[in-house]
Write a structure and sequence with these properties.
Distance between the termini: 21 Å
CATH architecture of the largest domain: 3-Layer(aba) Sandwich
Largest sheet: 7 strands, parallel
Shape: globular
Number of domains: 2
Strand content: 5-15%
CATH topology of the largest domain: Rossmann fold
Strand order of the largest sheet: 3-2-1-4-5-8-9
Structural class: alpha/beta
CATH superfamily of the largest domain: Glycogen Phosphorylase B
Helix content: 40-55%
């Protein structure tokens, strides 16, 4: 009898890719995989997500991709702190479509929904199908989210917004400045945005299990906290947590290009560990201002080091490099620098022997790709959980330094130059590189035979099978 797991990814490339890595792992273990998708540019406001899904579908012919029929007048996804509320409404509107799809699918053993789509668990509960959540960030972010509704204490009128930079204490985590928390909880506590976030977070335990995009040794304290009864107040219990990060498709799931990207050939001609790689995510929401782009350019040029820099226009569209960068910059740096528009194959660049450091926005997929490549990093967080990721990268993980200017809204050229030199020239940089190499070794071990991530996946599949068998026995008894 074929075993089927249905995946319900989130509407962002950064959420979709980890779910597809999970799909690859499920296929390796003999499961059939179906993916239910919401694909509607009228909802997302762009075609990037649909294009990414198309590339992956072509690369994974064994996976069945099903686009849910569109609903009438769907809510459009809002930017910024209002995103979660609009997303929750969208998922609710599509619940009937998901229900119909699951009813039409034979022998669904389990459904795994994206962490943004917890509203869909109502469908799985109604149908009696085990429902799990895929948390696409790390264990520390999950531990923070699980504790946020309770961490201020009952009756405490202080809001997170009022705390400013004051530290907030979480079990299993270093103190987190309130200003580093998710934007939604820094809103007015009476706002719909804040209430939607807290309602969503209170549902975290209401699932049969949570698959987390990390490996245990990278975030040992946070993983231990998630398994500690003190993580939630009395009467609430965290479901099983499965750390299944760094699956077999890490970095390649976006679909292989027909031709090798030109930047890789350029890297081939550079000395080992000599190139600064700057890239700020795959979604286009991390664009820098024109002023900031000029500061980065000036700092790179003054550093004298080789660089590969992915540039996006401040307001989207095709960047005009001559207009955005300082006069003559491209000509003066042509011997040791390369500027790429919009996109580069990040995972492949990070794995290249020429790459010496990675300037990153600290999105979790980027963090894991940097860890897997053993590359020390320079942190430049921009939104969502990236500020909290930065704290861990610089602190407990010890594989990154921080660009401090992001807190003032502008990283100046002098700091860019100074931090690049720190990583590539100083003793502190050599220490960062050594710790990055240790984490790389641990990442490889996590997915090797007997490794922690493989063991976690086996536990998850065992739970799925156990629940399926119990469901079948109940059906026979009825």
């Amino acid at each position: 009898m074929e075993k089927t797991v249905v995946l319900y990814p989130g509407l962002a490339v950064s959420h979709f890719v980890p779910m597809m890595r999970l799909a690859g792992s499920l296929l390796e273990h003999g499961y059939a995989v179906s993916v239910a998708m919401i694909i509607d540019p009228a909802v997302t406001g762009n075609t990037e997500f649909a294009a990414a899904v198309g590339r992956v579908a072509a690369a994974m012919p064994s996976v069945h991709f099903h686009t849910l029929p569109p609903v009438e007048d769907p809510p459009r996804l809002a930017p910024g702190p209002q995103f979660l509320a609009s997303y929750s409404q969208l998922v609710l509107r599509y619940n009937d479509r998901l229900h119909d799809f699951l009813c039409s699918s034979a022998r669904v053993h389990a459904v795994v929904v994206d962490s943004l789509s917890s509203q869909a668990l109502g469908v799985t509960n109604t149908l009696g199908i085990p429902g799990y959540v895929m948390f696409t960030s790390g264990a520390a972010a999950l531990a923070t989210l699980a504790q946020l509704p309770y961490v201020l204490g009952e009756g405490n009128r202080t809001s997170f917004r009022e705390l400013g930079d004051a530290p907030v204490e979480f079990l299993g985590l270093p103190p987190v400045p309130a200003s580093h928390l998710f934007a939604e909880v820094l809103e007015d506590p009476e706002s719909d945005t804040y209430k939607t976030m807290m309602t969503s977070l209170s549902r975290v335990p209401d699932t049969h299990g949570i698959l987390v995009n990390t490996f245990e040794s990278l975030e040992a304290r946070a993983v231990a906290a998630l398994r500690d009864p003190r993580c939630l107040p009395a009467g609430r219990v965290m479901p099983p947590v499965y750390c299944v990060g760094l699956g077999p498709f890490l970095g390649g799931i976006e679909g292989e290009a027909k031709e090798r990207h030109g930047c890789l050939a350029w890297l081939d001609a550079q000395p080992d560990r000599s190139v600064v790689f700057l890239c700020f995510g795959s979604t286009g929401v991390a664009n820098h201002s024109a002023e900031q782009l000029k500061e980065i350019a000036a700092g790179l040029e003054k550093s004298g080091h080789r660089f590969l820099w992915v540039v996006r226009a401040p307001h989207g569209g095709d960047p005009d490099l001559d207009a955005l960068l300082p006069d003559g910059f491209l000509e003066r740096t042509s011997g040791h620098g390369l500027v790429v528009k919009q996109w580069a194959p990040q995972a492949e660049v990070l794995r290249h022997t020429a790459t010496g450091t990675f300037v990153t926005h600290c999105g979790w997929n980027s963090v894991l790709e940097g860890v897997a490549a053993g590359v020390p990093m320079l942190c430049w967080p921009l939104h969502t959980e990236q500020k909290m990721n930065k704290l861990l990268m610089v602190g407990e993980m010890g594989l990154a330094a921080e660009m401090m200017g992001w807190q003032r809204g502008l990283v100046e050229a002098a700091e860019v130059e100074r931090k690049v030199r720190l990583v590539l020239e100083s003793e502190e940089g050599r220490e960062l590189r050594a710790r990055a190499a240790q984490h790389q070794e641990a990442a490889g071990a996590a997915w090797s035979d007997g490794g922690s991530s493989r063991a976690a996946l086996a536990r998850f599949l065992s739970d799925v099978d156990r629940r399926w068998q119990a469901r079948a026995r109940r059906a026979e008894a009825a």
